[in-house]
Task: inverse folding
């Protein structure tokens, strides 16, 4: 059995410039950090004694005879892409600290954790960079999702980083060097709230890309904000300046697509500002999910009181990225060949399996 642990992330600045449709022409950069909330993926070779061949447990429980029957898109396509087939049964479980489709990079955290798990199941080590690139390939090309490239890199590497996207396709990760007390100051002034809703990032991403060339100046400014934020973090000015920069970034991000915000999100944002927040943003592609605010300590109780119906989720930065936290694989691992399966009389009858309609690319 193998278990991987993959963090979720907070993206501060530069979002939108990580879409290949943009950075392959103009380059891009994102400032982000992983946090102490995680996605766990467990996988193992399934013993040959069951009447089903594969079992996948997420928000549904799937028991199927063949890989193409699996409903979860990332699992179905990822397994086949990684060279697994029906000769060996597989069992995969997903558990997450945060809900899916909420702007925290959950789909990419799952994709990264799954690929790390499957590589380990094959007895292979995979570097952080290769893992990130494979997750991008899975989401953008194998699954055909209209998503950016920042989340896969952020959660594979872990830490507080500047992720740079070159027009030639190169992706580089530069850990941010910040005085520990400045980083603690930033961390203590951040508040995360869950709005209790979800959305499809790919739909919003497609709309952003459709209007991208008409928002050239907006995206260029959002890219510049990465450098501005680094200057603030490495300087001596008040950390509140970063909050004001978040406010500017949010107002620019709303211009990228009419789907990014809505009346409810705007109302939540204004209530937080009126209660003492300096700035903030809706995390992820937009539409719903988690909202991040920069709130001086003196006003944090006021902001919580102003948003009583929304869950406040305390978070801290983390630095490890995706990792294998349990590895116990017997070379034999109770794998059965077709002849053994026939002797046991298994897989002779088609199995009924889940037919719930799901949203592609999301866990």
Result:
């Amino acid at each position: 059995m193998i278990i991987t642990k993959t963090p979720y992330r907070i993206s501060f600045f530069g979002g939108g410039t990580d879409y290949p449709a943009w950075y392959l022409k103009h380059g891009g950069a994102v400032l982000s950090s992983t946090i102490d909330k995680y996605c766990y993926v467990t996988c193992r070779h399934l013993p040959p004694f069951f009447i089903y061949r594969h079992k996948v447990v997420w928000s549904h429980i799937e028991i199927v005879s063949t890989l193409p029957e699996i409903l979860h898109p990332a699992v179905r396509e990822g397994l086949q892409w990684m060279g697994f087939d029906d000769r060996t049964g597989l069992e995969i479980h997903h558990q997450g600290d945060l809900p899916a489709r909420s702007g925290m990079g959950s789909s990419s955290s799952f994709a990264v954790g799954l690929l790390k798990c499957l590589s380990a199941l094959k007895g292979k080590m995979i570097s952080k960079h290769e893992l990130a690139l494979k997750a991008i390939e899975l989401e953008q090309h194998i699954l055909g999702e209209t998503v950016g490239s920042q989340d896969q890199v952020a959660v594979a590497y872990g830490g507080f980083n500047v992720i740079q996207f070159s027009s030639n396709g190169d992706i580089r990760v530069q850990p941010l060097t910040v005085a520990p007390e400045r980083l603690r100051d930033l961390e203590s002034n951040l508040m995360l709230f869950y709005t209790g809703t979800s959305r499809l990032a790919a739909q919003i991403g497609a709309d952003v890309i459709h209007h991208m060339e008409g928002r050239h100046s907006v995206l260029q400014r959002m890219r510049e904000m990465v450098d501005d934020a680094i200057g603030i973090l490495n300087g001596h000015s008040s950390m509140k300046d970063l909050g004001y920069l978040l406010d500017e970034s949010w107002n620019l991000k709303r211009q990228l697509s009419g789907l990014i915000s809505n009346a409810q999100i705007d109302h939540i944002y204004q209530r937080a500002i009126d209660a003492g927040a300096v700035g903030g943003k809706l995390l992820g592609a937009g539409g719903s999910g988690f909202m991040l605010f920069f709130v001086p300590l003196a006003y944090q109780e006021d902001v919580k009181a102003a948003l009583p119906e929304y869950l406040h989720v305390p978070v801290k930065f983390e630095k490890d990225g995706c990792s294998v936290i349990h590895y116990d694989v017997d070379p034999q691992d109770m794998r059965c060949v077709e002849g053994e399966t026939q002797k046991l009389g298994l897989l002779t009858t088609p199995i009924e399996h889940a037919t719930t309609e799901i949203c592609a690319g999301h866990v």
